[in-house]
Amino acid sequence: MDRILQRQDSWSSFYSGKLDEDQSSDYVKPQDGFSALLRRHGGSRRNSLLRWCQGRTQGYKNIDITNFSTSWEDGLAFCAVYHTYLPSHIPYESLNPEDKKVNLDLAFRTGENVGVTATLTVEEMLRADGPDWQRVLGYVESIFRQFEM
Protein backbone atom coordinates (compact mmCIF):
# COMPACT_ATOMS: atom_id res chain seq x y z
CA MET A 1 0.00 0.00 0.00
CA ASP A 2 2.85 2.41 0.82
CA ARG A 3 4.27 1.79 -2.63
CA ILE A 4 0.97 2.68 -4.26
CA LEU A 5 0.62 5.85 -2.17
CA GLN A 6 4.15 6.91 -3.07
CA ARG A 7 3.24 6.56 -6.71
CA GLN A 8 0.03 8.52 -6.21
CA ASP A 9 2.09 11.28 -4.65
CA SER A 10 4.24 11.41 -7.77
CA TRP A 11 3.44 14.18 -10.21
CA SER A 12 4.76 12.29 -13.22
CA SER A 13 2.65 9.22 -12.61
CA PHE A 14 -0.53 11.23 -12.23
CA TYR A 15 0.02 13.85 -14.87
CA SER A 16 1.46 11.84 -17.71
CA GLY A 17 -0.41 8.64 -17.03
CA LYS A 18 2.80 6.81 -18.00
CA LEU A 19 4.21 4.01 -15.94
CA ASP A 20 7.78 4.33 -14.74
CA GLU A 21 10.03 1.40 -15.52
CA ASP A 22 9.93 0.19 -11.92
CA GLN A 23 6.16 0.26 -11.68
CA SER A 24 4.48 -3.11 -11.68
CA SER A 25 0.90 -4.26 -12.11
CA ASP A 26 -0.12 -2.84 -8.71
CA TYR A 27 -0.15 0.67 -10.21
CA VAL A 28 -3.41 2.48 -9.48
CA LYS A 29 -4.61 4.77 -12.25
CA PRO A 30 -5.84 8.08 -10.87
CA GLN A 31 -9.45 9.01 -11.23
CA ASP A 32 -10.32 11.95 -13.47
CA GLY A 33 -11.07 14.27 -10.54
CA PHE A 34 -7.57 13.87 -9.16
CA SER A 35 -6.01 14.23 -12.58
CA ALA A 36 -7.82 17.54 -13.03
CA LEU A 37 -6.81 18.66 -9.53
CA LEU A 38 -3.16 17.86 -10.21
CA ARG A 39 -3.21 19.61 -13.59
CA ARG A 40 -4.79 22.67 -11.99
CA HIS A 41 -2.47 22.89 -8.98
CA GLY A 42 0.60 20.92 -9.98
CA GLY A 43 2.86 19.11 -7.58
CA SER A 44 2.05 16.15 -5.39
CA ARG A 45 -1.30 14.78 -4.32
CA ARG A 46 -0.76 16.27 -0.86
CA ASN A 47 0.16 19.74 -2.11
CA SER A 48 -2.67 19.74 -4.65
CA LEU A 49 -5.21 18.88 -1.95
CA LEU A 50 -3.70 21.52 0.31
CA ARG A 51 -4.11 24.15 -2.41
CA TRP A 52 -7.66 22.95 -3.07
CA CYS A 53 -8.49 23.43 0.63
CA GLN A 54 -6.86 26.86 0.68
CA GLY A 55 -8.90 27.90 -2.35
CA ARG A 56 -12.17 26.57 -0.92
CA THR A 57 -11.68 28.36 2.40
CA GLN A 58 -10.24 31.64 1.16
CA GLY A 59 -11.88 34.53 3.00
CA TYR A 60 -13.10 32.46 5.97
CA LYS A 61 -12.17 33.99 9.31
CA ASN A 62 -9.83 32.04 11.60
CA ILE A 63 -8.63 29.81 8.75
CA ASP A 64 -5.01 29.50 7.66
CA ILE A 65 -4.46 26.09 6.13
CA THR A 66 -0.73 25.47 5.79
CA ASN A 67 -0.52 21.75 6.56
CA PHE A 68 -2.56 18.63 7.30
CA SER A 69 -2.06 18.62 11.05
CA THR A 70 -2.19 21.77 13.18
CA SER A 71 -4.27 23.69 10.62
CA TRP A 72 -7.15 21.30 11.26
CA GLU A 73 -6.98 20.80 15.05
CA ASP A 74 -9.75 23.22 16.01
CA GLY A 75 -12.20 21.82 13.46
CA LEU A 76 -12.79 25.16 11.74
CA ALA A 77 -11.02 24.17 8.53
CA PHE A 78 -13.22 21.07 8.18
CA CYS A 79 -16.30 23.17 8.93
CA ALA A 80 -15.27 25.82 6.41
CA VAL A 81 -14.73 23.26 3.64
CA TYR A 82 -18.12 21.69 4.36
CA HIS A 83 -19.71 25.15 4.57
CA THR A 84 -18.60 25.91 1.00
CA TYR A 85 -20.79 23.02 -0.18
CA LEU A 86 -23.44 22.86 2.55
CA PRO A 87 -23.93 26.34 4.02
CA SER A 88 -27.25 25.37 5.62
CA HIS A 89 -25.55 22.52 7.55
CA ILE A 90 -22.70 24.54 9.08
CA PRO A 91 -23.42 27.81 10.92
CA TYR A 92 -19.85 28.94 10.31
CA GLU A 93 -20.20 32.51 11.58
CA SER A 94 -21.30 31.26 15.00
CA LEU A 95 -18.40 28.81 15.49
CA ASN A 96 -15.73 29.56 18.08
CA PRO A 97 -12.10 28.44 17.55
CA GLU A 98 -11.91 27.62 21.27
CA ASP A 99 -14.75 25.06 20.98
CA LYS A 100 -12.59 22.49 19.23
CA LYS A 101 -14.62 19.45 20.27
CA VAL A 102 -17.91 21.05 19.17
CA ASN A 103 -16.43 22.11 15.82
CA LEU A 104 -14.87 18.73 15.10
CA ASP A 105 -18.02 16.87 16.09
CA LEU A 106 -20.11 19.12 13.83
CA ALA A 107 -17.75 18.60 10.90
CA PHE A 108 -17.60 14.81 11.27
CA ARG A 109 -21.38 14.50 11.73
CA THR A 110 -21.97 16.70 8.69
CA GLY A 111 -19.63 14.55 6.65
CA GLU A 112 -21.33 11.34 7.72
CA ASN A 113 -24.73 12.83 6.84
CA VAL A 114 -23.60 13.35 3.24
CA GLY A 115 -21.64 10.13 2.82
CA VAL A 116 -18.12 10.98 4.01
CA THR A 117 -17.07 8.19 6.36
CA ALA A 118 -15.61 9.48 9.62
CA THR A 119 -12.12 7.99 9.47
CA LEU A 120 -10.94 10.40 12.18
CA THR A 121 -12.23 10.91 15.68
CA VAL A 122 -12.46 14.01 17.83
CA GLU A 123 -10.10 12.36 20.29
CA GLU A 124 -7.47 11.77 17.57
CA MET A 125 -7.68 15.38 16.51
CA LEU A 126 -7.27 16.62 20.09
CA ARG A 127 -4.23 14.50 20.99
CA ALA A 128 -1.51 16.46 22.78
CA ASP A 129 0.99 15.72 20.00
CA GLY A 130 -1.55 16.67 17.33
CA PRO A 131 -3.33 14.57 14.73
CA ASP A 132 -1.60 12.23 12.32
CA TRP A 133 -1.25 14.36 9.18
CA GLN A 134 -1.65 11.34 6.88
CA ARG A 135 -5.00 10.47 8.44
CA VAL A 136 -6.15 14.08 8.12
CA LEU A 137 -5.02 14.06 4.49
CA GLY A 138 -7.00 10.87 3.91
CA TYR A 139 -10.14 12.39 5.41
CA VAL A 140 -9.75 15.57 3.34
CA GLU A 141 -9.31 13.39 0.28
CA SER A 142 -12.63 11.72 1.14
CA ILE A 143 -14.28 15.14 1.25
CA PHE A 144 -12.76 16.00 -2.12
CA ARG A 145 -14.00 12.73 -3.62
CA GLN A 146 -17.50 13.25 -2.22
CA PHE A 147 -17.98 16.72 -3.65
CA GLU A 148 -15.65 16.94 -6.64
CA MET A 149 -15.68 13.50 -8.26
Record the SSE blueprint.
Blueprint: H1 2-8, H2 11-16, H3 32-41, H4 45-57, H5 76-85, H6 100-113, H7 122-125, H8 133-148
Domain Calponin-homology (CH): 43-148
GO biological process, one term: cell division
Subunit structure: May interact with both microtubules and actin cytoskeleton.
What does this structure look like?
This protein has 149 residues and is mainly alpha-helical. 54% of the residues lie in helices and 0% in strands. The protein contains 8 helices and no strands. It has helices at 2-8, 11-16, 32-41, 45-57, 76-85, 100-113, 122-125, 133-148. α5 (76-85) runs parallel beside α6 (100-113). It is globular and about 35 Å long. The two termini are 22 Å apart. This is Cytospin-A. May interact with both microtubules and actin cytoskeleton. One of its GO terms (cellular component) is spindle. Involved in cytokinesis and spindle organization. May play a role in actin cytoskeleton organization and microtubule stabilization and hence required for proper cell adhesion and migration. It is found in: Cytoplasm, Cytoskeleton, Spindle; Cytoplasm, Cytoskeleton; Cell junction, Gap junction.
